[in-house]
């Protein structure tokens, strides 16, 4: 019996593996000491006349380049001294220091040759670290030199960062000596970017003039090949005439011919530059038999109203703007009571066009159209039935697919909002907050806001979500990273006005705004107000918007904000 018990005990003991962390950390230190003391070194590497005694085993473990050298039939595998070509001795010393210590020292003055050495020796960590370091320090580098380096070595992360910096700082960059040292191909590539932050196309033309005049003899004949990259469709006739009369163009008949051909042919596909767009909040309303949308930028005092016929723009059920600045509205299909359709805004024509996307109308109380990371989601909410349904649009398959419906709402309210923030979708009621993770197709419940009576509007700004109630008396902010809430100052009613319609929060130029309609018993009737929130003083400031005194209708949990090229708007 005892023997049987002992056998059972032994069989229950499982083998285990143990890892000695002190050995792992100490091993590299021991190898470093061997190198420092010159012990057991079995090969000497010579770079630019300098000799570096090393260990074949250590070099082979660190670098595929050395592993291939020492384990193949190459002559170097049998030699005691090996001369390495194409390396800087100082950089090779830094590389050896990294191999034997695991510590890499990077600075602006040596990051490029260090990258070249790591590229040759196939040291991925050193190469990637140098790439990240250059990308983080684009502003501190000699720009064209870095741009050329990234181009030659195909360092994509640095090249992208250089391009982003050029686009954002084009005006300043065009006045620098570095700009004048660009090659023809680099110049034409840069001025072809949609993302250039310029207010007028004449800025691009003036930059080209500077570049040509920097070396007239060598560059004047190149002007006809540069001019097609100027977007003459964005210039006024006076601007075009001034360019035709410019001394550079008159000196080269070919340039004048190019301009005339480009202007005559026209190219509507050439988009406005990024800097030519103005951030505008869109607020729909219905008046005088037409569907109107007012485009607002309170910071610049711009309020532009555009009217569309009902057949061109049916009343919106939901609206959204995507990360690539496409504006979509969800409407009832004209010939069906059971289908919803999606219309897309054509910026250039200032018209709404059928996007070719249909959705079955579930007849729920509220419908939200939301984009997350380039994917459209449609969220249906039925308060009376306690049901929430969400689908997403698969563009490749041209169909809607169901998402997880497991939202554990313990109590339903008349007011709630849905919105996106970062890579997540959020659903907020008066006392609950839920988050949907598209990568997991799963909902989870987050920290409650406590209780917000009649929560009706919410908007994301950075990693925070701002929300408010119907009467703007309780405004709160939720930190999505810390999962915590904070109460902000409510709206200070400036008079005897009551909020008549659901207010709309929106974020424009990185500032929190709110739009709402008030009414009173006096003869003033409706007043449409816009306030901006000053976080430093925790106060709302009246922007004194010059808006028509008419009723507006809110769609979704906030006013959408898009980048608009103002000349495209009728009446702009």
Structural commentary:
The structure is a single chain. By secondary structure, the chain is an alpha+beta fold. The chain folds into three domains: 23-136, Potassium Channel Kv1.1, Chain A, CATH 3.30.710; 158-265, Serine Threonine Protein Phosphatase 5, Tetratricopeptide repeat; 277-322 and 361-568, Kelch-type beta propeller (Neuraminidase), CATH 2.120.10. 29% of the residues lie in helices and 30% in strands. Strands 23, 24, 25, 26 and 27 form a five-stranded antiparallel sheet that branches. The model has no long low-confidence stretch (mean pLDDT 85).
Topology:
Elements lengths: L1 H11 L8 H17 L5 E5 L2 E5 L1 H7 L1 H8 L9 E3 L5 H13 L9 H11 L2 H13 L6 H10 L3 H13 L1 H5 L2 H4 L3 H7 L11 H12 L2 H4 L3 H4 L10 H8 L2 H5 L1 H13 L12 E10 L2 E8 L4 E7 L9 E4 L5 E6 L6 E8 L4 E10 L5 E7 L2 E8 L4 E8 L4 E4 L13 E6 L2 E6 L3 E5 L4 E4 L9 E7 L2 E6 L5 E5 L4 E5 L9 E2 L4 E5 L2 E9 L7 E8 L4 E4 L17 E5 L8
Parallel strand pairs: 1-3
Antiparallel strand pairs: 1-2, 4-5, 4-28, 5-6, 7-8, 8-9, 9-10, 11-12, 12-13, 13-14, 15-16, 16-17, 17-18, 19-20, 20-21, 21-22, 23-25, 24-25, 25-26, 26-27
Helix pairs in contact: 3-4, 5-6, 6-7, 7-9, 8-9
Feature tags:
single chain; 572 residues; alpha+beta; Potassium Channel Kv1.1, Chain A; Serine Threonine Protein Phosphatase 5, Tetratricopeptide repeat; Neuraminidase; 3 domains; 5-stranded antiparallel beta sheet; 4-stranded antiparallel beta sheet; 18 helices; 28 strands
Structure described in brief:
The chain is of the alpha+beta class and about 575 residues long. Strands 23, 24, 25, 26 and 27 form a five-stranded antiparallel sheet that branches.
């Amino acid at each position: 019996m005892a023997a049987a018990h002992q056998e059972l005990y032994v069989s229950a003991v499982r083998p285990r593996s143990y890892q000695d962390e002190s050995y792992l950390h100490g091993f590299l230190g021991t190898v470093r000491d061997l190198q420092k003391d010159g012990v057991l070194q079995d090969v000497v590497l010579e770079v630019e006349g300098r000799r570096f005694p090393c260990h074949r085993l250590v070099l082979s473990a660190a670098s595929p380049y050395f592993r291939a050298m020492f384990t193949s039939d190459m002559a170097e595998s049998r030699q005691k001294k090996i001369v390495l070509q194409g390396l800087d001795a100082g950089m090779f010393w830094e590389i050896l220091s990294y191999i034997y210590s695991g510590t890499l020292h990077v600075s602006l003055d040596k990051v490029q040759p260090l990258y070249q050495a790591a590229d040759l020796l196939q040291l991925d960590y050193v190469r990637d670290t140098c790439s990240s370091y250059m990308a983080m320090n684009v502003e501190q580098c000699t720009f064209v030199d870095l741009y050329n380096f990234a181009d030659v070595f195909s360092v994509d992360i640095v090249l992208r960062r250089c391009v982003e910096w050029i686009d954002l700082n084009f005006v300043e960059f065009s006045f620098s000596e570095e700009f004048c040292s660009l090659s023809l191909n680099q110049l034409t590539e840069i001025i072809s970017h949609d993302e250039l932050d310029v207010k007028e196309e004449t800025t691009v033309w003036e930059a080209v003039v500077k570049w040509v005049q920097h070396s007239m003899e060598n560059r004047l004949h190149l002007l006809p090949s540069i001019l097609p990259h100027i977007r003459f469709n964005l210039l006024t006739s006076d601007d075009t005439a001034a360019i035709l009369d410019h001394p550079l163009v008159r000196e080269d008949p070919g340039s004048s011919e190019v301009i005339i051909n480009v202007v005559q042919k026209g190219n509507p596909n050439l988009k406005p530059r990024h800097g030519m767009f103005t951030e505008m909040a869109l607020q729909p309303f219905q008046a005088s038999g037409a569907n109107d949308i007012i485009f607002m930028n309170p910071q610049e005092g711009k309020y532009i109203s555009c009217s569309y016929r009902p057949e061109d723009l049916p009343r919106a059920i939901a609206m959204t703007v995507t990360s690539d600045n496409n504006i979509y509205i969800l409407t009832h299909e004209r010939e069906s009571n059971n289908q919803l359709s999606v219309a897309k805004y054509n910026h250039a024509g200032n018209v709404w066009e059928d996007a070719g996307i249909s959705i079955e109308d579930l007849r729920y109380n509220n419908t939200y159209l939301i984009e997350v990371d380039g994917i459209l989601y449609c969220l249906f909410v039925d308060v009376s039935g306690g049901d929430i349904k969400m689908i997403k649009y698969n563009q490749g398959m041209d169909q809607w697919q169901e998402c997880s419906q497991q939202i554990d709402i313990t109590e339903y309210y008349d007011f709630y909002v849905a919105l996106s923030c970062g890579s997540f979708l959020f659903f907020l009621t008066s006392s609950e907050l839920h988050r949907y993770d598209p990568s997991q197709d799963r909902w989870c419940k987050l920290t409650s806001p406590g209780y917000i009576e009649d929560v009706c509007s919410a908007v994301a700004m950075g990693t925070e979500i701002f929300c408010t109630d119907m009467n703007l008396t309780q405004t709160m902010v939720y930190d999505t990273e810390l999962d915590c809430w904070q109460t902000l100052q409510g709206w200070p009613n400036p008079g005897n006005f009551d909020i008549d319609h659901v207010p709309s929060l929106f974020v424009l130029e990185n500032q929190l705004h709110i739009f709402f309609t008030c009414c009173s018993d006096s003869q003033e009737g409706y007043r449409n107000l816009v306030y901006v929130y000053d976080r430093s003083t925790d106060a709302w400031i009246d922007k004194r918007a010059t808006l028509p005194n008419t009723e507006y209708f809110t769609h979704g949990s906030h006013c959408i904000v898009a980048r608009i090229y103002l000349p495209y708007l009728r009446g702009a």
